[in-house]
Design a protein that fits this description.
The structure holds 3 protein chains of 3 kinds. Chain A is mostly helical. Chain A is built from 4 helices and 2 strands. Helix content of chain A is 68%, strand content 3%. Chain A has a two-stranded antiparallel ribbon. The N and C termini of chain A lie far apart (86 Å). The mean pLDDT of chain A is 95. Helices cover 80% and strands 0% of the residues of chain B. Chain B is elongated and about 55 Å long. Chain B starts with 5 loop residues before the first helix and ends with a helix. Chain C is of the alpha+beta class. Chain C has 2 domains: 101 residues, Beta-grasp domain (Ubiquitin-like (UB roll)); 132 residues, Alpha-helical ferredoxin (Fumarate Reductase Iron-sulfur Protein, Chain B, domain 2). In chain C, strands 2-1-5-3-4 form a 5-stranded mixed sheet. Chain C is elongated. Classes of the chains: A mainly alpha, B mainly alpha, C alpha+beta.
Chain lengths: 132, 118, 258
Amino acid sequence: MSAPRPYTRPIDPQWWARPPYLAYTVREAAGAAIALYALILLWGVIALARGAAAYEAWLGFLRSPLSLLLHVILLAAMLLHVWTWFRIMPKTMPRLVIGGQYVPQARITAGGLAVAAAGFIVVLLLALWVRP
Amino acid sequence: MKRAIAPVFWLPFGAGGVIAALIGPALVLITGIAAPLGIGIGPDFMSFARAQAFAHHPLGKLVLLAIIALFVWHGAERIYLTLHDMHLASKPALAWLCYGAAGVITIVTVIALLAVGF
Amino acid sequence: MPLDESREPQGELPKEIILNVLRYRPGADEKPVPQSYRVPFTADMSVLQALQYVKDHVDGSLTFRWSCRMAICGSCGMMINGEPRLACMTFLREFPEGTVEVEALRNFPIERDLVVTVADFVRKIASIYPYLIPKTPRSLAEGEYLQTPAELARYEPFSDCINCMLCYAACPQFAENPDFIGPGAMALLQRYNGDSRDGGSARRMELVHGENGAWSCTAVGYCSEVCPKAVDPANAVNQNKTRSALDFFLRWLPGGSR
């Protein structure tokens, strides 16, 4: 018998880019996109503070093809965020037992998605309602 | 066992995530696509005058601060963890970078909102 | 999980399958080396049976752990085509391409061939006070605890863990940080914290609040996907992030630690 000589395998440095972890990395990137959108809003606030000319320049950027493409990507990221957020949300809660019955995580997810859909509609209606 | 400081960043991450989930898609659609293209939204929706009126109001400032700051802290946590997954630097170094940036951006947001005036 | 939906061969099954096994013989091998074996098989054979065929008829030196052959002992966890699987529950008919890659469970040191070092995992599950700690002293004369089905439902899946360690092989944060207490230990921890008969949460939460507790987890979720018993360790870890975070801020309020 030989003495124990355990072999430790090296970690793959690109593990995050390969299945099954790639989906997780894409999900995290959607979260990063949320911050990017906030920075665009911040630019608008700073432009607002600097005056009408700076603000018009920001609006001009928003009308540009680059910005429109970027916002389509950001919208996709936001939607991915909504989907993955409510898939994970039940995992962050204790197992829910109501009326003696376990509530499946899928139902909690569905509830969350319903609230998000309602939120989406409410904000859209607010924007449409304040049309001058 | 020594407590991790992670909860300090995890709660704003969570708050930002919830708000982004509820109003994020609508905000991106309106401010980034519908209003600039004038689809379904009037041409004055994001005009300088209306934006100023909104941002002058203390409640408007609060809304803008909440959205910008919480979205940024949410993203900072994600970016911190992902950069660590990619082995780009040590946890402390990345924490200073990501949370530090989020902190600076939050302060800049407050200053800008005050500079907009009342 | 693929049930035995057909005991008849589906389509043209090869008569033989090739097992590419990562061997490691300490002393003889500098580092692990692949070795191929041809294994004749029928539609109902598992990877474990294929390994047993090799050991019995081809190469007696091939070393692997196994016991129950029915996914309850947790011994035969290994990487099969890159996924953490139980060999007894993985069937050769799943691989129509005719080859299977077999390797020791990831994220653990290889002792020999398909056998990994489990001492660290055993230490972790022992460390979480894996026994009921009564809320108040209770004598035998007081009789048994009563527990409703609803109270059972709050923790029952966490009690299904067979300690197979597939979740540790799945977890990239455990790969990165071997001191992370990990999904399996957290599932066992939650089995007790969630049990209405138990009063030992505070003691166990000490292990949760640290960097190597719940906070090493980034909610990848792959642990729950690979679990053969639907324990959902991701739920055990992440609900304790919420609990730990609330406790971080509320511990000084009346009611104390949560």
